[in-house]
Specification:
It is a single chain. The protein is α/β, with parallel strands linked by helices. It is 30% helix and 22% strand. It has 12 helices and 16 strands. The strands form 3 sheets. Strands 5-4-2-6-7-10-8-9 form an 8-stranded mixed beta sheet, sandwiched between helices. Helix 3 runs antiparallel to helix 4.
Length: 367
């Protein structure tokens, strides 16, 4: 359970602009910190992260750096560690294999750090539920888990769908979910290269090709980082069906989409080159056919696709482009032309700050 410089920086940035005082934190297992004070402070200065210099003077000579001291130096008012035993210095003793947490630690912490623990818990569904229960509404859960290349490190290597489907099903807001690739020759156990957000990958094949291409220049051990924020209406105990199967099971084989209505209501009277479609596939193909029939193909500027490898190609004559923030906000309207990944695309656009009123779902036109 050790955190690198890049990971500690991500954790501190979560509360950089917070108005909360005496922020409470709970490490799941007391964390080892793979940092050096002075160089870390220089990085923090670049991000405007402040620390208590007087308290630092009291603890700076301790080696190794104690994680309780570290978080106190950076202004956390209440710092705890939860573990199965007190062997490594935890002050909250609790077995994450248990189905429920004690009442006195429910909804207690502003930040919960799972820095490589729950993959060691056999009842992992109980573990992630417990982390959700001890987090306050508005608080964050920082997860760092092995994705691949960690044979026998724990009971599990955790795929993104584990966090994504659990947090989505329990109404948490996922701040980010990325892969960490550690380069071979970096300082302090390697420099970390982060992937694009997992939600931008359209399917598991694109995802696998991406990981293989990046991992070729990095260590084989790939980590997964997921940061989730608990909302007022978040739950903890909903057991999800994996998203890819949820789409299959919930699919109504008899429905068809009224593409002509989409064209007449959202495209026909629009400005030239003002609309972007999002997603290629059968639905996009059918929508474009309806667009050609209505003789309004000049209203479509192009098609967004989150798979960068496809960008630059043409689909039915329209250029496929990557959804950068600049291109998204230049769009007067975005029509989501995929049903399989519709919710993920909507979440991505809203998370970017795009106007909800400018997003059109083709599934609203089922008949």
């Amino acid at each position: 359970m050790g955190l690198l410089v890049s990971e500690m920086l991500e954790i501190l940035k979560l509360h950089k602009n917070s108005e909360r005082k005496n922020i409470s934190i709970c490490m799941i297992g007391k964390q080892d910190l793979l940092i050096e004070w002075e160089s870390f402070f220089k990085i923090c200065e670049k991000y405007g992260i402040t620390y208590n210099k007087d308290l630092y003077e009291e603890v700076k000579d301790k080696c190794p750096i104690d994680s309780f001291d570290f978080f106190n130096v950076f202004g956390y008012g209440e710092v705890h560690a939860l573990d199965y035993s007190p062997y490594e210095g935890a002050d909250i003793i609790f077995d994450l294999n248990s189905p429920s947490v004690p009442e006195n630690i429910k909804n207690r912490f502003d930040l919960v750090i799972n820095g490589g623990t729950i993959e060691h818990v056999f009842h992992i569904s109980y573990a992630i539920k417990s982390l959700s229960e001890i987090t306050k509404a508005g608080g964050y859960i920082f997860n760092l888990s092995p994705l691949s290349g960690w044979i026998d490190h724990g009971f599990f290597s955790i795929s993104p769908t584990f966090f994504f489907d659990y947090y989505y099903g329990n109404h948490f807001e996922i701040e980010k979910i990325v892969f960490e690739f550690k380069t071979h020759n970096g300082p302090q156990m390697g420099d970390v290269v982060y992937s694009q957000d997992y939600r931008l990958f359209i399917n598991q094949f694109d995802l696998s090709r991406y990981v293989e291409s990046v991992a070729g220049g990095a260590d084989k051990e790939v980590m997964l980082q997921c940061v989730a924020r608990k909302k007022e209406d978040s739950t903890a105990g909903i057991i999800p069906i994996q998203g890819m199967y949820q789409s299959i099971y919930s699919k109504d084989e008899n429905f068809v989409i009224d593409y002509e209505s989409v064209v007449h209501e959202h495209i026909l009277d629009s400005e030239k080159d003002g609309i972007m479609l999002y997603g290629t596939g059968d639905n996009c193909n059918s929508l474009i056919s309806a667009i050609f029939k209505a003789d309004c193909d000049d209203k479509i500027f192009g098609i967004f696709n989150s798979n960068a490898d496809k960008c630059g190609d043409l689909f039915r004559g329209y250029r496929i482009v990557y959804p950068t923030k600049e291109k998204v906000f230049a769009s007067k309207k975005i029509i989501i032309s995929t049903s399989k990944y519709e919710n993920e695309v909507v979440d991505f656009l809203l998370g970017m700050g795009y106007d909800k009123e400018k997003i059109v779902r083709i599934t609203d036109y089922k008949r």
